[in-house]
Every structure is written in C-alpha cells, then in structure tokens.
Amino acid sequence: MNESTNPPENIVLIGFMGCGKSTVGRELHQRLGYPLLDMDHVIEKRAGRSIARIFEEQGETAFRDMETGLLRELVDPDSPRRIISTGGGAVVRPENRNLLRKLGYVVWLQAPPAVILDRTSKNRARPLLHTEDPAARIRQLLHEREPLYQETSHLKLDTSGLRSDEVATGILECARYFFTQRP
Description:
By secondary structure, the chain is an alpha/beta fold. Helices cover 54% and strands 12% of the residues.
C-alpha cells in the first residue's frame, strides 16, 4: 500500500451478489462484536425504497452515486472498527476502489457462476439479473468485475462449499496477520 497512514482495522467484504457478503458479515459481527454496516441496507434506508426501485426509478448511475457518497462518509479515521459489506458493483468506479482500500482489510468473496445463479435465482430483488438469461448476465458481469475485485482486495476466498463460519475463520486469521504486519 502506497499510503503513509495505515487504514483503520475494518474488515471490508467485496464480491459479486450471492457470494456471501451479508451472511459472512453477520458471522464476523457475532465473533468480533464490531458493528456490521451493510451498504445496500444503508442506501435503501436513506432512499426510502429498495435497490430494485432505485434502479427502476433513478437508474444505476444514481445508485452508484449513492454508493460513492456512502464510501466517502465511511473513510473517517475516527470511526469505530466495523465490518462493512458492500454491494456487488461497488468496485466498478475507480474512486470506490481507492476508498475501499482506505477503509481497511478488503476481502473478496468469490464463487463460480453456477453457484451464484443457484443462490440468487429465487431473489427478485436483484435488478441486474432481471433478464432473459441470468446465467449469461452473471458470466458477463463477473468477466467485467473480477479484475476490479482483484485490484481492490487483499484476500480472495472462494465461498462455494464452505459454511459461513469457515469463511469467517479464514478471514479472521488472515486479517490478524495483515494488521500485525503493517509498519
């Protein structure tokens, strides 16, 4: 990391929809006692409507603007340690990738397209999957976003075949090492 100051000791979860960010975030919250901030929930609460409605009524750009605004707020060195669960597209904007790295230890939760499709197929609140071929859309978005997740993350974990407690254990072991090895 090129920055002269160390990021706060937050754990930031990034990754595509259906990879377990919310579930693993709750597990980490239970273990550490850090507040859990789910960015999508904060945005929905502030907007007074679901993300699907935000996309429908204002478009994706407006939603991404809300994400960037929230990330700017979160980069506060005096904030308490937190578990931060991002939306799947939070990494699309270069500014967001920079802000995410400033927030702390960034973990990319990943899963194969078939697992993602299985996990998301029954959830109608996924506006980017409202298409004739959700599997093709997942593959397309993953192709676009994987390099961005890679660029942003300190750790990549495949969540397929693992329970949330197993994923949380791996994250905590790696995060402890990360935070103790910084200058």
